[in-house]
Amino acid sequence: MSAHTTLSFMPLSWDRCGVMGIVNVTPDSFSDGGQWLDPGRAVAHGLELVAEGADLIDVGGESTRPGAKRITREEELRRVLPVVRGLVAGGVQVSIDTMRSSVARAALEAGACMINDVSGGLADPNMAEVAASSGVPFVVMHWRGHSDAMDLLADYADVRADVADELHRRVDAVVSAGVDPGQVIIDPGLGFAKDRDDDWQLLAGIDELTRLGFPVLVGASRKRFLGALLADPVTGVPRAARARDAATTAVSALAAARGAWAVRVHDVAASADAVRVGSALRRSEARTDRQPWPAALSTR
Ligand code: PMM
Predict the structure, then answer these.
(1) Cα separation of 42 and 35, whole Å?
(2) Residue 26: CB within 6 Å of ligand 1?
(3) CA 265, CA 263: separation in Å to the nearest integer?
(4) Does the pLDDT of residue 1 top 50, yes or no?
(5) Which is catalytic among the residues 105, 144, 223, 258?
(6) What pTM did the predictor assign?
(7) Inter-CA distances, 139 with 173, 207, 252, Å
(8) Which of 55, 60, 74, 245 is most open to solvent, judged by the fewest CB atoms within 10 Å of its CB?
């Protein structure tokens, strides 16, 4: 696997960390389940997220919450296609969040311009071929198994090294199946077969992941590790999913500062500001004309 630091698909490259807004067309996603099941409301919400600063919208029809059961292909298509069509008609860049190659193909035909596969091509052996033949950006997320069993699979010797190694092998597999390395975006898959400590370690290791040579997408929005961090100090009850947005925003700034390509979030407006902060800090750190502190101070 060779190094490719930028997407060859230019419309999805920005001069800062990007913001991917989430529209889950599901009855059971952990934080917004049931809110956007009606296609008209889902499209209106996606357009609202774009107005708030989303660079693209990720549309998903199948919940991946821990313990979730799979739905049929027909149901998934019924949920996502009208929303993809509606958003594309509104001029929005749409990513399709699916583990099924047939759903990805149908969404691309409806105008989606990116595939986000949380299984990184593992759940459906035909996904890599659809990605390869379409040439669109393809998110390869770290994944070890379906949602009904994933919590039992969070067993790592060294989570950063293991996730990087497994992602590396997944990328090699999809590239062998014909995907151009310039299409690939990697994602550590926070919360997917990870416990809270694993999620924090992976976040702390974003810079290492970027060194694999692919754009890195970070999906921390409202996830369990934030709920646990913000748990009620008396009862220990995790903070409710909707009340995790400020923490998500903080993660967006940190992810941008550590070189993430984009963050995947529910609350777009706050993260749109946060990624600008993180990216500005990163640009400033990268300046070559900076004086080391002691020298700068001694010239006063
Ligand atoms: N998380 C969820 C769904 N899709 N896609 C990527 N690439 N990365 C993620 O972390 C990710 C994802 C689950 O969260 P949701 O139910 O809030 O959409």
Answers:
(1) 8
(2) no
(3) 6
(4) no
(5) 223
(6) 0.93
(7) 14, 18, 18
(8) 74
